[in-house]
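Name: Triose phosphate/phosphate translocator, non-green plastid, chloroplastic
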Amino acid sequence: MQSAAFSLPSPSSHTYLKPRNFASNPTFYPIHVASKGRDFSDSANAISIPSFPKRSWSLSSSSSFPLRAWTSGPSLSKPSPLQLRATAAENAGEAGKSGSLLKTLELGLLFGLWYIFNIYFNIYNKQVLKAFHYPITVTAIQFAVGTILVTIMWTFNLYKRPKINGAQLAAILPLAVVHTLGNLFTNVSLGKVAVSFTHTIKAMEPFFSVVLSAMFLGELPTLWVVASLVPIVGGVALASVTEASFNWAGFWTAMASNLTNQSRNVLSKKVMVNKEESMDNITLFSIITIMSLILLSPVAIFMEGVKFTPAYLQSAGLNVKEVVVRSLLAALCFHAYQQVSYMILQRVSPVTHSVGNCVKRVVVIVSSVLFFKTPVSPINSLGTGIALAGVFLYSKVKRIKPKTKAA
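Structure predicted for Triose phosphate/phosphate translocator, non-green plastid, chloroplastic:
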């Protein structure tokens, strides 16, 4: 009897603590923990109970520390449904917290990449356009690199290849046209004026969005939305008057870029609705990129000729390696920031995406001013700041805008 008294505490203290460690481990599911605990206790029962049935039970009730896990969890009987639900809820809560943190970090990384790719695109693109004065060819190169990336992505199943028909391509064609024109006008403007001024003018995108939505979609803006447009227009006007690099070609092409880009958004609502519900934004952008290359390549050859060749670059006194490398880097950054932008849009609301785009424009303007050492007067900075503040206010007002039902 003494040997039994001394031999029982050792397995009980060692054996009965294992289920407690399993239950506290968040990586195990409650069902698995319960089944393992039950199987283990059954095997222990087969060894200990036949020899010492009464003594083993009395020890489990009298021992306060080694066997406490059995008083709060399942012992030799099946766990109750209430215990399983409580454990499942606790583990689900912990998994939800870790999952939410992971999603937040992932979203923050995407926003960071969005801003970085956009900054480097504007820097490299401006350097190329200052040396190589053929914006149509530069834009076509950007679409060509994007087309190569899309082809690789579909060939190696990095993203699902879409199945589209002629009717869908006809519906996408207007979007491709305005997308092509929007990027072309932006490059023309970047070649004419400072990067910071182009993006200050492009801060007027909300103005064109409101006007076009009212004209073609019947979405009348609220008083708050109209009020938020006042600082945008006023700030851009003030910045334009005091801009050192101002010229009308750069101003109007930036305005045309606003018009075409917002026309694309309106067309996507008006034309693409119910056309292909399974087509996501990334797939749509990939198809538009290929179509833009097909549309713009003949125009570039007809209007500017075949200029992007080593022979021509050397004859123009340009460093061939620098121009080619920076053109390719600008094209890669262009396609990368567009893809990341659509990835973010799939994870957040359009209003949140709009706020992020406003912050991105501020980051691009500041970084370009610092990199190119653009001369900026205090009044010019004030005008830019007012315009960007208006864009931010517009983004916030859109969130509280009531839904308007079409008549």
